[in-house]
Amino acid sequence: MVAEQFTAAAAQVEPVYHDKEATLDKTCRWIETAGTQDVDVVVFPETFFPGYPYWRGSSIARWTDLMVELQKNSLSVEDDALEVLGDAIDEANCHVVLGTNERSERPGSETLYNSLFYFDRSGELVRRHRKLMPTHGERTIWGRGDPSTLDTHDTDIGRMGGLICYENHMTLPKGALAAMGEEIHPAVWPGFWEQHGHPGDKSKATDRSAIETCDQYPAMREYAFETQSFVISSSAYMSDEMLGRVMDDVDFNIAAGGSMLINPAGIVKAGPAIGEETLLTAEFDRDERRATKAYFDSVGHYTRWDAVNLNVRDTELAPFEGEQAGETPPTPSPATIEEIATEHDLPIDTVESIVDSLHSS
């Protein structure tokens, strides 16, 4: 059964920059805080673990030094830190979506990805999403994500999707998540900004008036409305003192916070929170979604799949193809099995048995 009401939270918290162990400890403490407030799902900002690379435009020599530090302090799906996180999450009894720099688990690779790790209430890592396309200077930091990670999963408070930063502006991935039945949308960002004419000219927001020019504010409200999702928009906050742990001349500081909680009608129920650490919370009711869908159902009565539809690939990127990668051949449809049986004058159950054997071997 899916709960009719739930409490959502955006953990607008600064990490201990480039410090894996200290960030792990702080993450667990804020998860504990969420648990004491009976939060059902808490979302940490983009690459919260162990911080967004605001230094991405540094000189090549300095960039290399910082990349090595980032690699050493990032998480992988095989990291022992996930067990520590899992215990804290289990104790808090809430779903957690963690923005992280993810170190590839592929043997021989040290590539980083901009990822979301999804934990259920028991603390189990149930899914990850890797950002499909790093933005601008981010392409010097992260690899491109696998199409297979554009997905949703079911929870006891609704089906959860999620996108990272400018993915929330990408029309087709948004449509794909809606078509997958997304109900709760974690959206993570590296901060909040004032935009001065175009996306390449922005500065750190200093107060709430930045909503007049920051593309993030209308994007999150529109995402909620056009997909009828509960949006948990979690944006990074970091003080100048914390950024100074890595370097004094950060060239892209937009870490102002800006987290928001938005209902499926596009109404902001909390935030944006600017210039502070906070656990921003809001209560949501599934009737808010039903009421919006009664008027405009993006995957129901307001669709025209006959006019426009999507081709969504779920391929995992790999260095080998075919049998070398140990791939299982696709399962033939019942119609194909019948055609094979007829062509070779075999009983259908014989062909089905062969197919089953191929997929169990």
UniProtKB/TrEMBL annotation:
<dbReference type="InterPro" id="IPR003010">
    <property type="entry name" value="C-N_Hydrolase"/>
</dbReference>
<dbReference type="InterPro" id="IPR036526">
    <property type="entry name" value="C-N_Hydrolase_sf"/>
</dbReference>
<protein>
    <submittedName>
        <fullName>Nitrilase</fullName>
    </submittedName>
</protein>
<dbReference type="Pfam" id="PF00795">
    <property type="entry name" value="CN_hydrolase"/>
</dbReference>
<dbReference type="InterPro" id="IPR044149">
    <property type="entry name" value="Nitrilases_CHs"/>
</dbReference>
<comment type="similarity">
    <text>Belongs to the carbon-nitrogen hydrolase superfamily. Nitrilase family.</text>
</comment>
<feature type="domain" description="CN hydrolase">
    <location>
        <begin position="6"/>
        <end position="286"/>
    </location>
</feature>
<dbReference type="GO" id="GO:0003824">
    <property type="term" value="F:catalytic activity"/>
</dbReference>
